[in-house]
Amino acid sequence: MSEYAPGDTLPELHVIPDAGLTKRYAEASGDPNPIHIDEEFAKKVGLPGCILHGLYSMAQVARAHTDVAGGDPRALKRLEVQFRGMGFPEQEIVVTSTVREAGDGRIVTDTVAAQGDSRIIRNASAELEL
Amino acid sequence: MALTTDAVGKSWEPVTFEVEGDRISQYASAIGEENPVHHDAEAAQAAGFRDLVAPPMFCVVYSSPAMGPAILDPEVEMNFATMVHGGQVFEWGEPVCAGDEITTTVTCKSIDERGGKGFYVFESVSANQDGAQTVKATWTNIVRGV
Fold first, then answer.
1. CA distance B37 to chain A (A)
2. Distance from CA of A28 to the nearest CA of B (A)
3. Is the full-model pTM beyond 0.80?
4. I want to staple B30 with a disulfide (CB 3.0 to 4.6 A). Which of A28, B4, B53, B55 is the partner?
């Protein structure tokens, strides 16, 4: 059923994590690192403020792909990312994905998550069964 | 300066995580995943799952309790003050549902220095109560100024 061919783009995913997101994500994921939830601590260690969890941003890349498969969690077979730069709450994340390979009911994409000009996830690749 | 590489090849005690439906729903909400198969057991069953099914990235939740002891092991000697999560790979197998018991084993794959940075690579393999692999993960932590 995959109608994708190399060079095609997947629908972009746009999301703005709200100010309370990092706290909810920390509780849901079990990651207690204070750089994500304690503004004063984050500034003390030299950050501009609380930063997003890299794995939250990775989850947005995952979601951009499972959305293409009608939300089926079984469709995503593999996801590889590098975390670069810092992601911040209250700024829009845009996930863009381009099909690199297609065939046998699977596609492989090159995918990026960015906030403005800052690419917070790059050199990323996903394998999706459609 | 040479990094301590004694931990390469070391595996830690497997850790088992019991998957509760509430944790699946809470995690799905946090990442903005609204598909009812993650929030409503009836919807999940109608879609062919035993119970609430986890989004793929829920593997972070059930792997983390096994990753903690590995990353914190003094033998690994990782400097947290300058550590960042550099990269991540997940390869998924069986989907994970509420009621599953997922057991994760972590191994230190490599510790290398490149360009003044230490690259600490761990692999975790998770399987459900039937022995079916649910995810294999590669976690890369980068430590500056080693």
1. 9
2. 5
3. yes
4. A28
Rounded CA separation B18/B89 (Å): 23
B87 occurs within a structural domain? yes
H/E segment holding residue B28: helix B21-30
Give the total number of structural domains in chain B.
1
Number of other CB atoms surrounding residue A34 within 10 Å: 14
Q: Can you list the domains of chain A with their CATH numbers?
A: 13-129 (3.10.129.10)
- Structural domain contains residue B2: no
Q: What is the pLDDT of residues A83-116, one digit of tens each?
A: 988 999 999 999 999 999 999 999 999 999 999 9
Distance (Å, whole) CA B55 – CA A29: 12
| CATH number of the domain that residue B64 is part of | 3.10.129.10
Expressed as residue numbers, the domain containing B81 is 15-19+59-144
Q: Which residues of B touch A62 (CB under 8 A)?
A: 55-57
Q: Report how far residue A94's alpha carbon sits from residue A37's, in angstroms, rounded to the nearest whole number.
A: 22
**C-alpha to C-alpha distance for B39 and A19, rounded to whole angstroms:** 23
What tens digit of pLDDT does each residue of B52-101 get? 999 999 999 999 999 999 999 999 999 887 888 999 999 999 999 999 99
Helix (H) or strand (E) holding B139: strand B133-144
Q: What is the average pLDDT value for chain A, to the nearest integer?
A: 95
